[in-house]
Write a structure and sequence with these properties.
Blueprint (H helix, E strand, L loop, with lengths): L4 E3 L5 E3 L2 E3 L8 H12 L6 E2 L2 E2 L6 H4 L2 H15 L4 E5 L6 H11 L6 H4 L4 E5 L5 H11 L4 E6 L6 H18 L7 E6 L4 H9 L2 E5 L12 H8 L5 H14 L9 H14 L4 E6 L5 H15 L7 E6 L8 H6 L4 E8 L19 H6 L4 H18 L4 E6 L4 H22 L9 H11 L6 H13 L6
C-alpha cells in the first residue's frame, strides 16, 4: 500500500456507553459531503479579516519542484557555515517544524551520529521560561549560530522577546555580518518584521496571507526550517499532493477526511469530550502533539470540540491507560499506527527462560517491532471492550512522503469539522484573550482601561491561599 489508510471498524458496534451502526450515519453523510463541496467552493464561514483562509488547499498543486530545490539549496548553503540553527516561533510557526524533524530525523536529532554533519536545531519563542532560555543559550555559547524568525505580525510577545535576545547574540558573534545569519519569515507587505527586513536587507520568506499558522507546514517558512535538517522537501510535497488528490473524491466511503471528520463529530454529539491520539512510535508522538494544536485551536469555539490528548503507547498504558480502560466513558481514541519501523531488534533466547519470553523465539515472533504492533492492536481491542471506540490511521513507513500525506489528511479533516460544528475553523479569537491581559499587566501603553477592569475583577474575588 502506497498510502495511509483509515480503519474505522472499532467505531461501530454496541459497547458500554456507546452504540453506533453504519446505518446511523446515513442521515449525516450528506451533511459532511455538503461541507466538502462548500470547502472546495470556498463558501461558508472561512474568512479572517476578510481573507478566505483556504490557501493550504492549493499548496500541494501550486508548488513546483524547482522552487523546493531552491529552498533546499539555501538551507544547504547556510548549513555549511554554522554549528547550530535556532527556529524562533510559537504555535503553528513551530510545532510543524519540530514534529517533522523529530519524526523523520530522530527524537535525539542534535546528537552528532544522527545529524551527519548538519547543524544542531533548537527552538525558542515557544514559551517564556527564563530557565529554559538560559539552558539553550548556554548550549549555543561558542557555536556558530543562525536564526530563523517566523511571525506574520512581528509583534507576538513570545517570538519578539526571543528575537531580541538572539539578535544580540548574533551581533556579538558575527558583528556587522550578522544579517547573513538571520532569516525572517513574515507578511509579504506589512508588519514590524517586514519593515525591519526591508530596511536592513535580511533574507526573507513570505507567510501567505490566506494560510493560518497551524495549516502552514507546506509553506516556504516551515519548509526552509525542515530543510535545515536535511529532509527531502520534494518527497514531502509529493505526499501532500498525493493525499490532496485522493481527498478530492466527493464520496464519503472513498474519502478518509470525510470519514474522520464525521465520526469525530458524531462522538462529540454523543457526549464525548476527549480524543486520545495515541501512537506506538516515539517518532510519531511529536506529530500527535502537532494535532494537539491543530484540532483544539480550530474546534474549540462556543463550547464545542474535542480535547486532544497525545499519548505514547505502551508507555502511557502504565499511567493514564487505567483511566482510558475504566475511567469515565467520555473519550474516543485515534491511533497513529506505524506499520514498519526503520530498524528491528531481535529478542535473544535464553537457556533459563526466567522471564518466560522464550515462547516468542519458538514462535518466530521475537522481534520488537512485531511486539510493538501487536501491543497497539491489543490495546485498541481492550479499550473497545472497555467502552472506548477508536479509529486507526495506518502509516506504512516513517518517510517524508507518508508524513506529508498525514499532515494534509488532518488539515482537511479539521476544516470539515468546522463546517459540521458550525463555526470558522481558521480563526482563534480565544487565543487573544490571554495576550490582551498579559500586555495590560505588563504595563503596555494604551492598555490602562483594561488594567482597571482586571483590578476591579481581582477585587471582587475572595483571596484564599492555603
Amino acid at each position: 500500500m502506497d498510502r495511509i489508510t483509515l480503519d474505522i471498524s472499532l467505531m461501530f458496534g454496541r459497547i458500554p456507553g456507546w452504540e453506533l451502526k453504519e446505518k446511523d450515519l446515513a442521515n449525516l453523510i450528506p451533511m459532511v459531503e455538503e461541507a466538502h463541496k462548500r470547502l472546495h467552493k470556498r463558501e461558508g464561514d472561512i474568512l479572517d479579516k476578510g481573507i478566505p483562509m483556504t490557501g493550504w488547499l492549493d499548496l500541494p498543486f501550486s508548488l513546483e519542484e524547482e522552487h523546493l530545490l531552491k529552498i533546499t539549496e539555501h538551507a544547504k548553503e547556510l548549513s555549511r557555515k554554522i554549528d547550530a540553527f535556532v527556529s524562533v516561533g510559537i504555535g503553528g510557526s513551530y510545532l510543524g517544524i519540530e514534529a517533522t524533524i523529530m519524526c523523520l530525523k530522530g527524537t535525539h536529532y542534535n546528537q552528532a551520529l544522527i545529524r551527519e554533519g548538519l547543524p544542531e536545531i533548537y527552538f525558542l519563542g515557544t514559551n517564556m521560561d527564563p530557565d529554559y532560555y538560559r539552558e539553550i543559550l548556554a548550549i549555543l555559547k561558542d557555536k556558530r549560530v543562525a536564526i530563523h524568525v517566523i511571525s506574520k505580525s512581528g509583534t507576538t510577545l513570545e517570538t519578539a522577546v526571543a528575537f531580541r535576545v538572539l539578535r544580540r547574540l548574533l551581533k556579538e558573534e558575527w558583528g556587522r555580518g550578522y544579517k547573513d545569519y538571520l532569516v525572517i519569515s513574515t507578511d509579504r507587505q506589512k508588519g514590524a518584521l517586514r519593515a525591519m527586513a526591508n530596511a536592513l536587507g535580511f533574507k526573507t520568506y513570505d507567510i501567505p496571507e490566506d494560510v493560518g499558522g497551524r495549516f502552514s507546514v507546506l509553506t516556504d517558512p516551515l519548509l526552509f526550517s525542515i530543510a535545515m535538517a536535511g529532509i527531502d522537501l520534494v518527497s514531502f510535497w509529493k505526499g501532500f499532493r498525493s493525499m490532496a488528490e485522493l481527498l478530492e473524491v466527493p464520496d464519503f466511503y472513498g474519502n478518509m477526511s470525510m470519514a474522520h471528520a464525521l465520526l469525530r463529530y458524531v462522538a462529540w454529539q454523543k457526549g464525548k469530550a476527549i480524543e486520545v491520539v495515541a501512537t506506538n512510535s516515539c517518532h510519531l508522538y511529536p506529530v500527535a502533539r502537532w494535532m494537539e494544536q491543530l484540532f483544539p485551536e480550530s474546534e474549540g469555539h462556543k463550547g464545542k470540540g474535542l480535547w486532544v490528548s497525545p499519548s505514547l503507547y505502551t508507555e502511557k498504558l502504565h499511567a493514564n491507560g487505567q483511566m482510558v480502560q475504566e475511567g469515565p466513558r467520555n473519550m474516543i481514541e485515534t491511533f497513529l499506527v506505524l506499520q514498519k519501523h526503520s530498524s528491528e531488534i531481535e529478542i535473544p533466547k535464553e537457556e533459563e527462560d526466567l522471564d518466560g519470553l522464550n515462547f516468542l523465539c519458538e514462535r518466530g515472533t521475537a522481534y520488537m517491532g512485531h511486539i510493538n504492533r501487536t501491543a497497539i492492536e491489543a490495546t485498541a481491542i481492550a479499550h473497545y471492550q472497555g467502552g472506548v471506540p477508536s479509529m486507526s490511521l495506518h502509516i506504512p513507513e516513517r518517510t517524508p512522503y507518508f508524513i506529508g500525506q498525514l499532515y494534509f489528511l488532518m488539515e482537511k479533516s479539521v476544516a470539515l469539522s468546522g463546517y459540521l460544528l458550525g463555526h470558522n475553523p481558521f480563526v482563534q479569537p480565544g487565543v487573544e484573550a490571554y495576550k490582551k491581559n498579559m500586555y495590560a499587566l505588563l504595563g503596555k501603553p494604551g492598555t490602562e482601561g483594561l488594567v482597571k477592569e482586571l483590578e476591579k475583577l481581582k477585587n471582587t474575588l475572595s483571596r484564599v491561599i492555603i
